[in-house]
Amino acid sequence: MTELKSLSEDAYLALSHSYAATAAGLTFGVARVPEAVHGYGVPEPGGDTPSAPEPCAPITAPESSGEQSGDEDDTFEQRQRRRGSGTADGRRRPGEQRSLRLSINARERRRMHDLNDALDGLRAVIPYAHSPSVRKLSKIATLLLAKNYILMQAQALDEMRRLVAYLNQGQGLAAPLTAAPLTPFGQAAVYPFSAGAALGPCSDKCAAFSETPSALCKHCNEKP
DNA sequence: TAGGCCATCTGGTCCT
DNA sequence: AGGACCAGATGGCCTA
């Protein structure tokens, strides 16, 4: 199995730094995601009740997840008593509190599942090795890779626009764009993660990124 | 065994 | 009031 170490954040930052010019004009910050995200709730088979055990779900620790299975009411009540009535549900009867808490937990779980689904969708469109033998990109790696990909695409688009303008200038506006296929871009411009670098010393590991370079790979940044 | 990654719970805050 | 979002805490799983 191809082992893929988690990518160092610095590597991503370093890579994206090389596209700083493009990045300068782009802001992706969204303080609060508006309606587009609200109400997207995908109804789970189990409705509001705690969903079926997830791959990592059955946490049996006494403190953190006892109530997911709904069979440790005493612990839950004890905790509620310990915490006092600082929250909105403080004035509720214990049973009511519990069911409200379970409902909130289920909602939060669903929200996180939807978030993970979105991340999966993002992974699906990011150019990296999707082989089953390659470990799935971590969340942070997915986001950083996606960011770099977007920056590279923006740069390529900009480059293309400039080229088209140049061609139109030289050949007259009548020249059809389809007359000559536009293939002026180097691999680096088309493939965002290659950065034009040759395979590093750990090309086997970097192969996880479709033979991409080393800037993304911890191993490549390791000192010999 | 330590460290990375993840899922879940939880309480707080903001918004509708 | 209820829902969405967020961040901290906790514990499990996996890999080097």
TrEMBL record:
Pfam families: HLH. Keywords: Nucleus, Transcription, Transcription regulation. It is found in: Nucleus. GO terms for biological process: axon development; positive regulation of transcription by RNA polymerase II; sensory organ development. Residues 40-107 are annotated as: Disordered. Residues 89-99 have a biased composition (Basic and acidic residues). One of its GO terms (molecular function) is E-box binding. GO terms for cellular component: nucleus. Residues 99-153 form the BHLH domain. SUPFAM superfamilies: HLH, helix-loop-helix DNA-binding domain. This is Class E basic helix-loop-helix protein 23. The lineage of its organism: Eukaryota, Metazoa, Chordata, Craniata, Vertebrata.
